[in-house]
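Re: that chain you flagged

S.,

Sorry for the slow reply, it's been a week of failed gels. I finally had a moment to sit down with the sequence you sent. For the record, here it is as I used it:
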Amino acid sequence: MSELVLAAESGRIQGSPASRRMRSSGQVPGVVYGGAGSPVAISCNSRELRALMSKRPIVGSVITLEIDGKARKVICKELQKHPVRPEVLHIDFQLVDGN
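Prediction finished late last night. Pasting the structure tokens below so you have them in one place:
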């Protein structure tokens, strides 16, 4: 079984208007929570996410998430999709122990 890898950037601006602008520019907003730190707001490329989703279902799967170049093992906990269009609106990840 191939390893699932997704690149992401931290430090995104939060809020509905910022998330809409991000989606229109080809990014998907998300959050990484768990561990000792506070949740981290991230964004990832929608094309890379779609390519990853075409390999196998990612909800509940362990993924290597490269946040600003640092690899972290996460589990995709929730994936929010648009009700009509085949578009991901938001994604939630939880850190796996040992990070």
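What I noticed first: The helical segments are 16-24, 46-55.

Talk soon,
D.
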